[in-house]
Amino acid sequence: MCSVNPFARASEVINSSCQEDCGNVSIPYPFGIGNGCYVGDWFEIVCKSSNDSYDLGSLKPFLKKFNREVLDINITASTVRIKYPIFSSCTNGMERTNNSELEKAPFFFSDINNNFVAMGCNNDASMESIFPDHSISYGGCKSPCDRAPFTYGSSCNATNCCQTAVPSHLHAFSTVIEPKNNGRSDECNYAFLIDRNWFETKFTKPNPNMSVPVVLEWGIDNASLYSLPTMKNSNLTAILEYNGSMAYYCSRPQITRMGDSSAPRCRCNNGYRGNPYLLRGCRGILYLFRNNLFNPFNS
C-alpha cells in the first residue's frame, strides 16, 4: 500500500500551531481549524462535541459555514463526506423541503458518489428547483408498495424503495415527498441523498431524525484563490493550464445549467504525489521512493 500521505498537513507549511485532526478525522489544507489554517470561510472547520446519542461528547469536525459534521476529506478526489439529514413525511399530504446551504458555495452534491433515494409505500419523491415558479425537475422516483422487509440498500427497487441518479453540479434543490394512494397514517415516507456505497452496504432502516453520509465535491472559490500558498508570486494563467513541467496544476470544471461550478481544483502532476494546495506540497515520486516515503510495489 502506498505510504505517501496525499493529505499533507497544513502545519508543515501554513502555521505550525494548526490543529491537524479532530477526533478520528484528518483535516488537510485548504480546510483547517483556527485562524490562518484554512484558505477561506467555506473551508473553516470547528472541532466540537457531538450531540449524537450514540457518540455523545466525542469531538467531531464540522464545516462552520453550514454546520454539517465532516466524516472525511479527500484532497486527491476533491471530495468531503458529511452527515446530511434525511427528509420525511409522516402524513398523507405533500411535503417540500429546501436544501439551499450550498447555493453560493464552492461545493456541490456529487453525482458520481451519491444517489437520490425514496422509501415508503407508493412514495412519489423528487428533486426540484428551489424556485417553484421555474418548475424544473432534477429527477425522482416512485417506491413500490411491498410489505416484504427491507434489508440493505443493495435491495432497493424491490421493497418500498427506489433510487435514481443525481444530476451533475447540483448546488441547491427542493426535496418533494408526495404519497400516492397510501391511505395509511401510521407509516412515514422518506426521501434523501446518500453516499451510494454506504447505502448499499450499511444502510438498514430509516427514521425521521437520522442523518446519513453524503459526498460533496469542491474547488477553491475565486475569493480564496489568491490566498493559496501556491498562488503567491505565481502566474495564475499558467497554473490554470495543464503544464507538464510543473509539480501541480489547477483547472476549472465546466459551468452547467445547475450552477456555476467553475471553482478551480488543483492536482499534483504526473509523477508527483502530495497536497497541491500547499507550497512544495507535491513531491516527485522518485524523491519519495528514494526517501522510503513511497513504494509502488507495496499492496
Automatic annotation (TrEMBL):
Gene Ontology MF, one: polysaccharide binding
InterPro entries reported in the protein's UniProt record: WAK (IPR013695), WAK_GUB (IPR025287)
Places the protein is found: Membrane
Residues annotated as signal peptide: none
Wall-associated receptor kinase domain residues: 154-220
Gene Ontology CC: membrane
Residues in Wall-associated receptor kinase galacturonan-binding domain copies: 18-83
Organism superkingdom: Eukaryota
Annotated keywords: Disulfide bond, Glycoprotein, Kinase, Serine/threonine-protein kinase, Signal, Transferase
Record membrane topology: Single-pass type I membrane protein
Protein known as: Wall-associated receptor kinase galacturonan-binding domain-containing protein
Organism: Carya illinoinensis
